[in-house]
Amino acid sequence: MISPLSSLSVPWSEDMFIDGELVRGESSERLTVDNPATEEVFADFPAASTAQVGQAVESARRAFESDAWKNRSLRREVLLTMARVLEENAEMLVASIVREVGTPVTLARALQIGEPIALLRAFADLTMIDRDRALGIKEGSPRSDATITYQPSGVVAAIAAYNYPLLFMATKLGGALAAGCTAVLLPSPQAPMSILLFARLLADANIPRGVVNIIAGGIEVGQALTTHPDVNKISFTGSVGVGQQVMAQAAPGLKRVALELGGKSPSLLLPGVDIDSITDQVHARYLRNAGQGCSSPTRILVHETQYEEFVELSQRAFSSLKIGDPWDDTVVAGPLISAKHRDRVEGYLERAVGGGGKIVAGGGRPEMPNGWFMNGALVGGVTNKSEIAREELFGPVGVVLPYQTVEEAISIANDSDFGLAATIYGDIATARGIAPQLRVGTVMINGWIPRQDKAGGGFKMSGMGREIGEEGVREFLETQFIAWPEPA
């Protein structure tokens, strides 16, 4: 069924949001945005200039140093206002996400709009927590008392990836503002439009000037933002390669950095698990959003005695998990973000097959008149050392890897440069015993469980720092020790 939102007109905005005002970009660089399902160019506009980057940072600095922003109740109200703006404009923002990213409409409602609303409200509650700790009297010479206090990091450069623009907006701005920081938000140049639309809506909400600034641009704008001397903290979500560049740019100023980078997450199916009941959801988890998710569990570990059954059931699953028009309520995955990215993902498949692997389920492209679509694919006949099992494809492709013992499965799961997330299917008590042995930041048992109090983030090449929940606020706080002599 085609969603009625498909006919909704989206009043796109191409303006930046700097110091409480909507302003046009002033750079000679232009940003071009396509609809990945139709290949239609629907936006072409000037990026922010480096001078405007400076203006945005200066605005955030003034707001951060203002007495008003030290008021927790004001910060809470701003976060609640942002949640309200999303909620009141939910249908229009869903339509913008579907057109800009190609996310299927049902997933867009849940993860691109519903989850950000819930996160912002959770951060609003976390704003009011007093985290300071009294250490008490310590005898000595001199006798002393002391406290541990937590101070906001300062001005935050928040840089979001293209796959979940409004979700990343909520996780980064939510944690930063709850901690007492102010921010300059830079969306991906591949998907800036939904965030710029949100910026226009936010401008009408009359939040304090400079608390949130939103700019758009490419590499030059990003570098100007991360190297600006008045930026104290950088929060980046994206690829490992760009994350390394961000770290390098932050190094001369010793800026604090939080990075949520790539993943090659495992799904560990424990021996004897009911394969028939879970196969569809195992594949749906990494097929959704066309596989463009950092935590997508694309390495599927199956006991050797159940391997053939899993492959057979996967063929059935791939025939029922629909790929196509993102406006169709029954579609699981829409297009990839660009033709270039689809070519990249298909290149991994071609090399895997050329090296002896086999597409055991799915494959090819759906019959669509336009758009950068590809069917999901499951690859067998490869090992965990194969390229397709090592590198993040960011596409709708999984690999199935047989194991003999649970110990071997744990070893395979941990044998990765990444450590973002893992899923375990099977007996809960057994799975909970295995979870601490996995070198990943998030472990989900028997499916994905959305929680606004989680601590998202990864081990190893998947990044550093945490987002969401209490840890997501502490990421934007600095620890301060205060001591004084205390008379006997």
Write up this protein.
This protein is an alpha/beta fold. Helix content is 37%, strand content 22%. It contains 15 helices and 24 strands. It has helices at 50-65, 72-88, 90-101, 105-127, 165-179, 193-203, 219-226, 240-250, 275-287, 307-320, 339-354, 387-390, 406-414, 428-434, 469-474, and strands spanning 15-18, 21-24, 30-34, 41-46, 133-134, 144-152, 155-159, 182-186, 212-214, 233-237, 256-260, 266-269, 299-303, 322-323, 331-333, 358-362, 377-380, 397-403, 418-419, 421-425, 442-445, 459-460, 463-464, 477-485. Strands 16-17-18-13-12-20-21 form a seven-stranded mixed β-sheet, with helices on both faces. It has a six-stranded mixed β-sheet with strand order 9-8-7-10-11-23, with helices on both faces. Strands 5-6-24 form a three-stranded antiparallel β-sheet, with no helix packed on it. Helix 2 (72-88) runs antiparallel to helix 4, helix 4 (105-127) packs parallel to helix 5 and helix 9 (275-287) crosses helix 10.
Q: Descriptors for this entry?
A:
488 residues; alpha/beta; 6-stranded mixed sheet
Task: Offer a quick outline of the entry.
It contains 15 helices and 24 strands. The chain is α/β, with parallel strands linked by helices and 488 residues long.
Report Rg: 23 Å
Q: Residue-averaged pLDDT, rounded? A: 97
Q: Span from first to last CA?
A: 77 Å
User: What spatial order of strands do you see in the largest sheet?
Assistant: 16-17-18-13-12-20-21
Task: Note the overall shape.
Answer: globular
Number of helices: 15
User: What portion of residues is helical?
Assistant: 25-40%
Q: What percent strand?
A: 15-25%
User: Which stretches are low in confidence, meaning pLDDT under 50 for 5 or more residues running?
Assistant: none
Please count the beta strands (DSSP E, at least 2 residues each): 24
Q: What structural class should be given to the helix and strand makeup?
A: alpha/beta
For the biggest sheet, the summary is: 7 strands, mixed
